[in-house]
Every structure is written in structure tokens, then in C-alpha cells.
# Entry
Amino acid sequence: MFSLRATTSAMTKQIILVPFLALFIHSAGAAELPEAAKQIIFEQIQEDIFFEDEGLVRSVKSMDDLHFKQRDEFKIRISGDSYSRWDQKKIHYDCEATILTRGAIQTKNDVSTLCRMTGENWPHDSNRDRSQRNQLFVKLKPGGILPGSAKIISSKELFGQMVLVKATDAAALARDLKDSAAVDYVQLNSFHGKQRLPEVEKAPLAFESFSEASPFNDPQVSKIWSFLDDKGFGVSVNKTYSVLGSQAREDVIVAVVDTGVDYRHEDLRSIMWVNPGEIPGNGKDDDGNGYIDDVHGINTLMRDSNGVASGNPMASHSHGTHVSGTIAAAQNNRIGIAGIASRAKIMAIRTVPDDADETDVDIVESFLYAAKHGARIINCSFGKKTNEGGMVVAETINHIAANYGTLVVAAAGNDSNPFVRWDIDTDPKYPASFDSEGLLVIAATSSSGGLASFSNVGRKSVDVAAPGVNIFSTIPNDSYGPMSGTSMATPTTVGVLAEVLARFPSLTPVELKKIAIESVTPVSSFKGLMVSGGRVNLYQALQTAGRYR
# Structure
């Protein structure tokens, strides 16, 4: 759930890019796309590459020269050249459109596009920080009052001195307010950058049962290699329950801020968090928290005419459901698999679109909702490579750790390859690269014991590693399958920490983070690539937690 890194151009003159050579698709002879589908794809490309900063504009003006042919059922590749009217510099585009649903492309939700640009004036890709045009974060100085402005439509206090402002023109308002004596800083509401989410893998390893005695009666649990002990390069889940049994003292609420969760799944419905103050389906805000029928969580991607998030976090993609099963799928119910944590309750928060282009406003709202409603851990399997100096998400993480006892666990990212490791100390990822005692960052390992080839690293920014390749878990519609990514390593770690909290509920976020780092199984090749230099281990984490309490 991560986008390519971008840099900022120093140009300040207005330019408009127009097609010069026809953008074309490398066709394999597939049928011509309908005109309506072409228009939707073009609009998505236009949105991808739009850029505006201090009078400079980059965009594609017309679709007249575009020629579309679908390469296969799900992929369309697009490339072409455009020129700047200002200086006649050439910019080259390489775009890929991914069809997200089977059948016709009818809305922008059916397709995701990703464009990369090269050229004399644009040595960067399309995923430069983009922002929502009518929302602005304003942090006031102590005792400061939001200055009046005709550009302000409404405002909402978030926490501390942080205010979210709805404006007629957020960028213009930001320029007006940034030098105000009452204002500490302003920040636009940034998108995180589009890209394709990890998908269920069709046929990885033959998923025969891994050889180790299991304490669970769930029929497909033996397909989860991460349950093995150190010799199998897992996190010792089987060993923990076989030796220590189930000693959890209380439920632990875990918020999965993701693409939503299939809360009707056969292996998840019994472990879903239920809002005790809400009466399901009556169309009312029974508990007065501002949300209607938020029984299992909220959906910030669906809002009413007043901008209030929906109370239905049903999954739109398999990602969030897969994450949830790894953490907490029902144990010993003779169905499907088992989660790592025995008494975790999943709070579902749909904030990540199917194209992974979440906004800072939605992330902040999700984190605050989770913390205020009792989540002890937030699973954050998403991130971006541009931040433009924004600190609102970081301040939110600090706030919920200090005031609600909530730990955010975030993925390190999947930008490495077999030849080069992406170091998020020097090439940051957000939120993973934020410096916060309330944030734990996770790299991914494979079943052979080493780091996954795609996993990012960071001596200072990455804390621990966990299994994240071919992880078998729940997917929507009562199904199961494997997925890979630091997105999968993160819930593996969250499941471990949720079980630790269930047995030692008085632990603070800072203590929980220390326990995760101190209890790893050391791996010599990880030294210098992360803080702990090792892989998380449930059995050892519980032994370490016992020394804290």
C-alpha cells in the first residue's frame, strides 16, 4: 500500500502539458475499450499527474489523441509524450491502469492508475504529494484563536490545539494563515498516492501442512507457517499455546485501519468488536458519538451530505479482511484457521481505498475514533513516501499514545528488491519514519528465515521483523488464501502484542513496544537493518512481559 517517491520542482511559472504524440497502449490484440471506460481511465490519469504549487500547473489537457486497447483482463499499459507550452520541454509518461473489478468499467472505483514521468523538467513520478482542495489542518499556538476569514466555511477541533478547517480554497487560506501570530503551522490534507494493493496469491507454495504439532483444531491452521517455532522461522504461536495454554485475562480491542473487514466472515464474526452503545440498524446515533449505526466501526470513505462517516466498514478489498484473520480469527471453532491472539476484538475502520490513496484527514479521524472507543492497538498496513513536512499524523499518534494508551503498529513498506534495500531512514516512508514512542514499525521475513526481498529496512526507523511472505488468512466471502507484504508482517506482530496485552492488560504503549523489541529472536543478518535485529516471538514476548509486571 505504498507509492513511489517523488521530489518537488522548484519551477514557479505556469505550464500546461498537452499531448504531443499519441498516448498508446501496448496491445495484445484485445477488444477496443468502450468510450465511457476510456473517459474514466483518462480522468484517473489526469488526477494522477495533476500538480499545482505556487502557480505551476501540470496536467493533460485533452483525450483527443489517446488510443485505448485493453492488454488483458486486468491490465492496460499507457505511454506517451507531452510538451510544456512554457518552455517546450518534453515529458514522457509511462502509465499502468489496473481494473479492480470484473466486468465493465463503470465508475472510477473500478480502475486504478499509476503514472511515472521523466523529462528535462520533471525528474520524478506522478505520486508527488497531492492534496484535497477544501480541507486544511491548522495547529494553533497555546491560547491562540482561529483567525477569521471569508475563506473559512466551518471548523472542527480535533485534539489539543489542532483544528480541521473546511475552506473555499485550502491552499489560499494556508498562505493567509501561515504567518499569523495565533498559528503554529498549517498543513493541507494530502492524499497518500495511488497504487495497487497486495492481492491474494493464486498458487504460491503447495500449502501442504507444515510439520509441527498444533494446539488448534481449525482445519486449515497448519497452512500458517508463521505459527512454527524458531527452527521453522515462525513466531512460536504453536509453542506458546501448547506450553502456556490460554491464559488471557481480558479482551483487547484492535483497530484494523484498512480497506474494511468482512465482518460476516465465518471465522471473524464472533471476534468482531461490537459498539456497546449502538443499536444495530435503527438509523440513529444511539451513543451520541456522532456516527450512526457504527456497530463494528466506521467507514471514512463513505460520508453523508454533512460529511459524517458511515457506520458500515464492510470490506471493499481482501486486504483488511486478511489482516484481521491473521490477528484474531476464531481459535478452535473447527472452521478455517486460527488467529494469533485468543481474545482480540477487531474494530473495523475502512479508510484505505482500493487504490490505496487514503488522505491524512481520514487517517487522523480513524486513529482518533479507534483510541476514543477503546482500541489498545491500531494495525496500520499502509504508507506513503511523500510528506511535505506534515506532522498532523505524527502528532495524532503521540496524542493517542499519551491520552488513550494506544499503540500504532505500522508496515515498513515494500520498495526493496533482491538487489537493493530501501532504507526508510534516508528515504522516508510515512507514518513508518515518524519518530514516536507510540509507533512500532515492522519489516517482513520469509519462510526461509531471511528478510523478504521486498521488505524495507531502517536502522533507526524499523523496529522488528515478522513473517510476511505467503501468509495464509481469511479473505471475503468465507474464503481463505495467502498474501505477502509488510502489510502481512504487521498483523503478525499485532497478533503477538494483542495476546501479550490480553495476559498483561496494564502494560503501557511504551512498555509494549519495548517488549516487542527486547524479546525478538536475534538474526545475525538483520543487525544494522533495524533496531532489534531480530524476528518477533510470542513465547519470548510473554516471558519478557512477565518481568515488566
